[in-house]
Design a protein that fits this description.
By secondary structure, the chain is of the alpha+beta class. 29% of the residues lie in helices and 18% in strands. Strands 1, 2, 3, 4 and 5 form a 5-stranded antiparallel beta sheet that branches. The chain is elongated. The N and C termini lie far apart (136 Å).
Length: 177
């Protein structure tokens, strides 16, 4: 190859290699087949609709901590504010970000604010479930028909009556002659 074509060919090859590397870093898979491992990042406290319903103004800080857990952020400059932040990034699931702010007056809860609609516990579990196969979960409760079909438990036999009074005879303490 003549030297006048060698330099442009090298530059073209370098440009293609660099652009190829950049496109591989920005995509989720390589050639549509290989998916690189992504670290699952979970930070903060999961707060569900059921938990938030238990928190009422007038509760103490300890009671709020019992229901929601320890706050992710407590600021020394804003001692009357607790921030509950939850983020999750999982491969195959939508990233989630929720913020809940609890404001206190002294030791009692004044208000609780949320930046988004909180999911119910079942909705949250379904949103992070990344299994591609359908799983058959058993029902958690019996129907009325299933309850009626259950065998009637046998009544336990009545316990034997306990004797009243002393049941043992002891020898006398002093020998009799």
């Amino acid at each position: 190859m003549p030297s006048r074509f060698r330099r442009p060919a090298c530059l073209l090859a370098a440009a293609l290699a660099v652009s190829g590397c950049a496109s591989l870093q920005s995509s989720d898979n390589i050639f549509g087949v290989i998916t690189p491992y992504r670290v699952e990042v979970v930070q903060g406290n999961v707060v569900t609709k059921e938990q938030l319903a238990l928190v009422k103004p007038g509760m103490t800080r300890a009671q709020v901590r019992d229901v929601l857990g320890s706050p992710l952020l407590t600021d020394a400059f804003h001692a009357d504010r607790w921030d509950y932040v939850f983020t999750i990034r999982r491969q195959g699931a939508e990233p989630q970000l929720r913020r809940i702010v609890a404001r206190f007056e002294g030791e009692t809860l004044k208000s609780v604010d949320s930046n988004a609609e909180l999911p119910e516990e079942r909705e949250f579990v379904a949103s992070i479930d990344t299994f591609k196969t359908s799983r058959k979960a058993p029902p958690l409760a019996l129907s009325e028909e299933q309850i009626k079909a259950l065998p009637v438990p046998e009544k336990p036999a009545a316990p034997a009556a306990e004797p009243i009074g002393p049941t043992r005879s002891y020898p006398p303490l002093e020998a009799t002659r």
